[in-house]
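User: I'm new to structure prediction. If I give you an amino acid sequence, what do you actually give back? Let's try with this one:
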Amino acid sequence: MNDTVDKLVIFLAKRDGIDKLVKTFQYVSKLVNYHVESTDSDMAKRFKNWEVASGLSRKAFRTGRFLTGFNALRRNPGSSNTLRLLAVLGNAGEMVYFFFDHFLWLSRIGTIDAKLAKKMSFISAFGESVGYIFFIIGDFILMRQGLKEEMKLKRRIRSSNDNSKNDEKESKGEEVEELKKRVQKIKGDRVMRLMAVAANVADLFIAVAEIEPNPFCNHTITLGISGLVSAWAGWYRNWPS
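Assistant: Good question. You get back a string of structure tokens that encode the predicted 3D arrangement of the chain. For your 241 residues, that looks like this:
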């Protein structure tokens, strides 16, 4: 119990941790509002206010976050030219998203002309969707590379087990254990990348709903579920190990 509390404290100390918690509030309240709208207008209004307040607070909390794209590229530019290009394009799209999201927030709270909200929302969502597409492609490439590496390591493990001799048993055992650790690391990385893909695909639905409104993406259930998938996938990725 104490370990869980400690991890929760660490999680909520992160900017992303707070964001995922408030995002959960935002999309749970959206779904509740949709559910009670026809039966309890007063309750629906309260949850709508909660949704709006959560959305605006997330935008305020993300102030300056567009600069993290530079840091991400500096720390992990990619291991190949293809991955490096995908990282640049993905982070560029995300930086456009976060930068124009500032103006969307200011227009919605009335600090600047409210008429700018629609235009800022479109630019922000467009940059967001472009970034997500390149991030998704990059994650699939890395997962494919990881699967190939995992298969090679497993073949080496089988070979070591089959060819081990009594006088080499101890050294072979140490080698096998090291190979198994590398396999586990690849599997753990793949789970994290799957969570990233799930979050990015979910957020892509939300962005498309803003760029090109349509009955499917703009439906409250679609938006609500997409928001929660994104929030909980991010929650999983940011939860302390």
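You can read the tokens as a compact description of the fold. Here is one thing that stands out. The two ends are 15 Å apart (CA to CA).
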